[in-house]
Specification:
The complex is a heterotrimer of chains A (393), B (316) and C (229). With 316 residues, chain B is of the alpha/beta class. Chain B has 10 helices and 10 strands. Helices cover 39% and strands 11% of the residues of chain B. In chain B, α5 packs antiparallel against α6 and α6 runs parallel beside α10. The relative contact order of chain B is 0.11. Chain C is globular, with a radius of gyration of 17 Å. In chain C, α6 runs parallel beside α7. Classes of the chains: A alpha+beta (393), B alpha/beta (316), C alpha/beta (229). Chains in contact: A-B, A-C. The interface between A and B is large, with 86 and 55 residues.
Chain lengths: 393, 316, 229
């Protein structure tokens, strides 16, 4: 056996290109189902885990999938917002805790997520560095965002303008990094978490400016009794600092301010049932169970997976047939070598062993490559896949 | 790989094993208010009256903290981030309502542990007389809404705030319900006694105009029918000639006999007002921890002085 | 060893053979080659020289007659037994050398050891192969591939491969056919030298009559058939 393997190895090594091509083809054939299985298991744990860990989501009536994707995975889907009043209403029921989620802006390529302090213990987020949110203007970076941007507590981060060419749009807001989270291997790793009020300021719904009561004539257009009209020279702050914090304010009723959705955490099971009952016929709101939404999605495309599996196996079978054909043709071309072996006295069994060893070595290498790739995908594929699904959905 | 694996993404998701319906984690008892031992309970407040109310009712072992430094008006105190983190770590945060403590507007506080004590105790909050309407940019004219926030000067409203504190305490320390309720009842009696005294003062003064050193008396005025016009004068600062000119202009419009001050004014200020026929009366809003006595003592002293001015009771 | 001295290494008697697909047949009335003899088989193309070698080595089986090689009735052996007999008893030198390009010189020489479980590739075999390579002037070429060698060097590798298992008989089918005259004689000298040194019987097919005086026995393949009445 050793001799057969040796001869097979020397032959394969001598014909590197052909060997590599065949091994890679087989790897794909063997690996694809392995990868599919490994990734599906990993994805199940990751995607469903996040959905299952979120009891209820309150949003505007519409696509429940968009609501789930935007709120749980911070992928902008343009879901219509609800308001802060909805969250106050949840609290007022005494049945649940409402955690606002406000998405819409980015900060250097990472989603800016406005929320409340309750989000952090709810998601069991721990701090690797620094502290939690305390003031408007503070931001917490997810582990990956911090690593990619090279930022930590004490650094600053600018929000990105919502549209590049909106000359009348909102100026970027300078945020202060006060903490960095430990890795969670989920969407929170890529998030820039701020107080929801900070998100509103970043969106231009709140602002701070110099005191008009004390503003000079270069800023004030006119003063009537009780009313001051300022011109464009009025300095509006694009950074919230200790000295100008007081000047930041919001116009209108804060309860009318938008939030993308609310994570609703019932105090107990009965409270959850009661709450869901209240929203069954709500005309403009929906209270969904994320796990159920993700589950529905899975069911719908599960059927499609069956078809894909048939395609994958058919392709695999074709690959296997091609492999066998290539090997057969290869031995045909080596007919003289076979004749020599026979003339020298090589046993048929030995000849078969030598041919089989070549196949075994290539298959073995393919299995190894496919196995390693499958393990790697099982380890890291859930995050890649999650991003791929959510950005493509 | 990304583009090529896009079809595979659907495959991946389809390989997910569907979970049984209804197995999602709906209930999370961790987020329901937990009953605690009194010793582990800490209460942070934004002003002295709320601290006083909490201390009158809280069972032994509960820590009531009012961290604003002495000498600083807690309504305008700007705590450090570290101080905010202390508030975040507490079991219960008592806010006043009415926009009191501006810092709570821009601080991040845990919603589940906040009680806005004056919310719902009245149909809407009062506004101050003066707020600057201004216009800049495309939004049009608007005012930075200035709510009056010394709600506890309406003693019935103060009793309502105390009842909110009672309810929050009982929720967290249900074992001490009886003692908490007893503490509340005692406090309520004291507050309502004060309320009755001020009602009498209000009736006695009728629509006689008064001045106020700052716009801190709207709730007092509204509750007890007092007509108080607010100025912006500091008791510990000398008044300038411009100040006196404005005062004279005000006094020309109406005949005022008394002026309420949050603290005793300077002698020169007092003399100036007396010359103009206006008697300064100290009515300490008791927003900060008093150097002597407690909230009740301060308010009782306020009532004594008003009763004296109104002629309801002999002056001390 | 004494037993083999008593018997000829090659002995054919009344052998008749034809290919299954027809078209060619050979008859050998009698052929004997003594042990240690250097014999040449001659004849025109298509006379059956290669077929004769195939019959002697057991690659082909006669339809009749007796084929005895190194004292063994190969015509009575099963195909597996013939293969086993062949690899342990006979060494081959082919006209086109038939070396394996994917093996280096040493591995080509040792090739027969890897083809049959009866042959053990141990330290002794490796040592023997190196010695043989050294005798044939191949010591410095052991790591080279056949494509990196000259024709003469390739021929020497083929000779070494044929001798590495210490066979009793070497069958060479026109081994010098593709060599130039100088290299041809050099190769033959080496072959004769090694066979003589090991007392190995040599039967070499050739169509070059100029070499015949170097052989002790000439086998005219055309004349091997039965005498016509």
């Amino acid at each position: 056996m050793k001799d057969s393997l040796y001869l097979a190895w020397r032959y394969l090594r001598h014909h590197r290109a052909k060997t590599l091509l065949l091994v890679l083809s087989l790897s794909v054939f063997l690996g694809l189902p392995l990868i599919m299985r490994a990734m599906s298991r990993a994805t199940q744990e990751s995607l469903l885990a996040r959905a299952e860990a979120t009891p209820l989501l309150l949003g505007k009536k519409g696509s429940s999938l968009d609501l789930v994707v935007e709120t749980l995975y911070f992928q902008l889907k343009g879901a219509e917002p609800i308001t802060e009043a909805d969250i106050d209403a949840i609290h007022a029921t005494g049945l649940a805790l409402g955690i606002p989620i406000r998405t819409g802006l980015m900060a250097r390529g990472f989603p800016l997520v406005g929320t409340s302090l309750d989000y952090f213990p709810f998601r069991r987020l721990r701090f690797a560095k620094g502290r939690g949110l305390a003031m408007m203007g503070d931001c917490i970076l997810g582990a990956e965002a911090a690593e990619t941007l090279g930022l930590g507590p004490g650094d600053a981060l600018l929000t990105s303008p919502s549209t590049l060419f909106d000359l009348a749009g909102v100026y970027p807001l300078k945020l202060h990094v006060v903490g960095v989270l430990e890795p969670t291997y989920g969407p929170d790793d890529e998030a820039v978490l701020v107080d929801v009020k900070t998100a509103w300021v970043a969106e231009g719904m709140g602002h701070g400016h110099q005191d008009l009561a004390r503003a000079g004539p270069d800023v004030v257009l006119k003063r009537n009794e009780g009313t001051v009209t300022a011109n464009a020279k009025l300095v509006q702050f694009n950074e919230i600092t200790e000295s100008n914090l007081d000047s930041f304010h919001f116009h209108g009723d804060p309860s009318s301010y938008p939030v993308s959705a609310a994570i609703v955490v019932p105090h107990d099971e009965k409270a959850g049932i009661l709450l869901r009952g209240r929203f069954v016929d709500a005309p403009t709101r929906q209270l969904v169970r994320p796990a159920q939404v993700v589950d529905s999605l899975n069911k719908q495309i599960f059927r499609f997976e069956r078809v894909l599996q048939i395609v994958v196996w058919t392709v695999g079978l074709a690959t296997a047939v091609m492999f066998v054909l290539v090997m057969a043709l290869s031995w045909r071309l080596r007919a003289e070598e076979l004749r020599t072996m026979t003339r020298l006295g090589c046993s048929r069994w030995k000849a078969a062993q030598i041919m089989g060893s070549e196949i075994a070595l290539m298959v073995g290498a393919s299995v190894l490559i496919a196995g390693v790739f499958g393990i790697v995908m099982a380890q890291y594929g859930d995050t890649w896949l999650q991003n791929l699904i959510l950005r493509g959905s | 790989m990304r583009k090529g694996a896009r079809a595979g993404t659907v495959v991946m998701v389809t390989a997910l094993i569907p979970i049984a319906l209804g197995c999602s984690k709906e209930a999370d008892p961790d987020h329901a208010p937990k009953s605690q031992d009194a010793d582990s309970l800490s209460i942070y407040t934004v002003n002295y009256p709320l601290s006083y109310f909490a201390e009158r009712m809280a069972p032994a072992g509960v820590r009531v903290v009012f961290p604003a430094p002495e000498g600083i008006d807690p309504a305008f105190w700007k705590p450090s981030a570290e101080a905010v983190v202390e508030y975040q770590a507490s079991s219960l945060i008592l806010l006043n309502g009415g926009g009191y403590a501006r810092w709570t507007r821009y601080a991040t506080l845990p919603q589940a542990r906040i009680v806005v004590t004056a919310d719902g105790c009245r149909d809407g909050y009062l506004r101050t007389e003066q707020s600057v309407r201004h216009q800049h940019g495309p939004e049009g004219a608007h005012a930075h809404a200035e709510l009056a926030f010394t709600t506890w000067l309406d003693l019935r409203l103060a009793a309502c705030q105390a009842s909110r504190i009672r309810d929050a305490l009982i929720e967290r320390v249900p074992n001490a319900k009886d003692s908490i309720s007893a503490g509340f009842e005692s406090l309520e009696r004291d507050l309502l006694d004060l309320d009755e005294r001020l009602q009498i003062v209000g009736d006695a003064l009728g629509d006689q105009p008064l001045l106020g050193s700052h716009p801190v008396y709207p709730y007092l005025a509204n509750a007890y029918g007092l007509s108080i016009q607010s100025l912006h004068l500091e008791p510990d600062q000398e008044l300038s000639d411009d100040d006196w000119s404005e005062i004279d202009a005000t006094l020309r419009q109406r005949r005022v006999k008394w002026m309420l001050w949050e603290a005793p004014p300077l002698e020169a200020t007092k003399a100036g007002f007396l010359e103009r026929g206006v008697t300064p009366i100290v009515f300490d809003p008791a927003g900060q921890t008093p150097s002597k006595g407690d909230f009740l003592a301060v308010m009782q002293a306020n009532a004594d002085r008003l009763e004296c001015a109104a002629g309801v009771k002999p002056c001390p | 060893m004494l037993g083999y001295i008593r018997h000829p290494v090659i002995s054919l008697r009344d052998v008749g053979f034809e290919y299954a697909q027809g078209g060619f047949s050979i008859d050998v009335a009698e052929l004997t080659v003594a042990s240690g003899t250097r014999a040449a088989a001659i004849g025109p193309s298509g006379s059956g020289k290669t077929t004769l070698l195939n019959l002697i080595s057991g690659i082909e089986r006669p339809r009749s007659g007796e084929v005895r090689t190194a004292g063994v009735r190969v015509d009575r052996l099963s195909p597996a037994a013939r293969r086993s007999f062949r690899i342990t008893t006979i060494g081959f030198v082919f006209q086109d050398f038939l070396l394996l390009e994917y093996l280096d010189v040493l591995d080509n020489i040792l090739y027969p050891y890897r083809l049959h479980p009866k042959l053990r590739l141990d330290a002794s075999a490796r040592s023997g192969a190196r010695g043989l390579a050294s005798d044939l002037g191949l010591a410095g070429l052991l790591k080279r591939r056949p494509s990196e060698l000259s024709q003469g060097e390739r021929q020497r590798v083929a000779i070494a491969r044929a001798l590495v298992t210490a066979p009793k008989l070497i069958l060479a089918d026109e081994p010098t056919g593709s060599l130039d005259p100088a290299t041809k004689q050099q190769a033959l000298d080496l072959l004769f030298e090694q066979c003589d040194a090991r007392s190995t019987t040599l039967l070499m097919v050739t169509h070059d009559h100029g070499l015949l005086d170097q052989f002790a026995q000439i086998v005219d393949v055309e004349a091997l058939g039965p005498a016509e009445a």
